[in-house]
Amino acid sequence: MTVNEASTRSPSTRSLASHGSSAPDAPQSPGSPAADGSAVGSLALGRAAQELDLKRGELDLAVQLGHIRTTPGASGGPPRIDRQEVDRLCRAEGFPDALRERVRTVGTVEGARRIAISPARFTRLARTGHFIPIRFYLNRYRAVVWLYLAEELSEFALAHPTLLSGRTPPALRTMLDTGQDRRARNWRGRRLGLLLRRTEDAWERAAAIASVLDPVTVAEVVPDPYERSHLRVLRPELVPGRPESQAGREVVERLLLADHPDEILWHRVSLAQALREARDLRPAPRPAAKTDAECGGEAVPRRPRLMPVRRSPPGRGLLRRLRIRRAGPVG
Predict the structure, then answer these.
(1) pLDDT in tens, 219-231
(2) pTM for the structure as a whole
């Protein structure tokens, strides 16, 4: 599929909270600390999915979209869900079908059937940016299959009935005739927005923005190698897994990186701004300084390692001069 896009936003776009994974919990006695040091009464995401009667992917999406609140895991571990949050969701009206419907995703054929249009018209509206994908995957032919939130499609149909029938507006026909396809760009923008809402840390926000730019562009915006290294460490995963085949990975990599000049410029400016905020907060980590006892315990910067100088074996220069003397003058 073609993935050259320009940016638009659908009125039905939402934001997310956080995302993670963990193994199911072991039983805990009331009032006792959790085995992994986490707060008492919290559940790992896998265990919470079972109690909420959701598939793991559905729970992850509900967390991302902010339908389910999480708490930070102990010692930087995966996020967890409080028992009170699980009980609140279980008591909600229409549980569990109502919650499952909010995170239901559909492809082109099912989405077109849901809003009573043809798959061809659905594709045209998606390519022109009226439907923003929430996920994608590669089928066995390594073609990109975009997924959309079913709830958002229904809302769009109610808000824009004139786009579901009749002739395609001239402006949209012009975009389609020039080969524009905004699905990948809109997915990147949405995914990045969800990641940025998950953290308030300036360095983590800068790393999220850098994740949609190619290494050359990042190096132009971030000339300091230590800052670039720190951003790589904090870089989030835009997709949970990568295809096993090299050809599949190449397709996914093309979807992850900004490829339109306007999009690249926007992210460059955003990254530069995020870096200024991060530097004001704290500098990026650098090689540890060693303590010199002779300097009263003061930190002494580590000297840069120099490349060894190659020296000729002993006697080689003398033998060369003797050969030149024996050969006599030239000419």
Answers:
(1) 999 999 999 999 9
(2) 0.73
